[in-house]
């Protein structure tokens, strides 16, 4: 039976294992245990996991800057796809963000992750062509 609940730092190892087993998903230094703990504390009750029995089969993290929501790390185990899990996880985030007064959200998708691109486009999310995102890494580590 599928259950979806708020992600806690105690879910970290299972979530990271799921991410690492999922093609197209990157794991960066910013996904460390400490960084994830800070993110969850800064954005309480905005990240979720999906479980079937004791197995973590999906996850999503989200947060906001007070104006816009940001979704990231939507992952569903290959064997559990096409069952509505991703949609349910996204809805949990969007509903929580809306309750906080956040009506518009963004998601970044790695250009080589065609599965993710297809998913978001199919769900009605619009690819932005009017902006480019620039990043700066202060510590110089390429995997930040």
The CATH architecture classification is: 3-Layer(aba) Sandwich
Determine the mean pLDDT. 92
Range of helix content: 25-40%
Element-by-element helix/strand order: EHHEEEHEH
**What is the global morphology?**
globular
Count of DSSP E strands? Answer: 5
Radius of gyration: 15 Å
Spans of at least 5 consecutive residues whose pLDDT stays below 50 are none
Kindly report the spatial arrangement of strands forming the biggest sheet: 1-2-3-4-5
| Total domain count | 1
Q: How far apart are the termini?
A: 37 Å
Number of contiguous helices: 4
Strand content: 15-25%
Structural overview:
With 144 residues, the protein is an alpha+beta fold. It has one domain: Aminopeptidase, CATH 3.40.630.30. The protein has four helices and five strands. A five-stranded mixed sheet has the order 1-2-3-4-5, with helices on both faces. The chain is globular, with a radius of gyration of 15 Å. It starts with a strand and ends in a 22-residue tail after the last helix. The mean pLDDT is 92.
Secondary structure blueprint with pairings:
Layout: E1 2-6, H1 12-20, H2 33-42, E2 48-52, E3 55-64, E4 68-76, H3 85-99, E5 104-107, H4 114-122
Parallel strand pairs: 4-5
Antiparallel strand pairs: 1-2, 2-3, 3-4
Concise description?
The protein has helices at 12-20, 33-42, 85-99, 114-122; strands at residues 2-6, 48-52, 55-64, 68-76, 104-107.
Output the keywords.
144 residues, alpha+beta, Aminopeptidase, globular
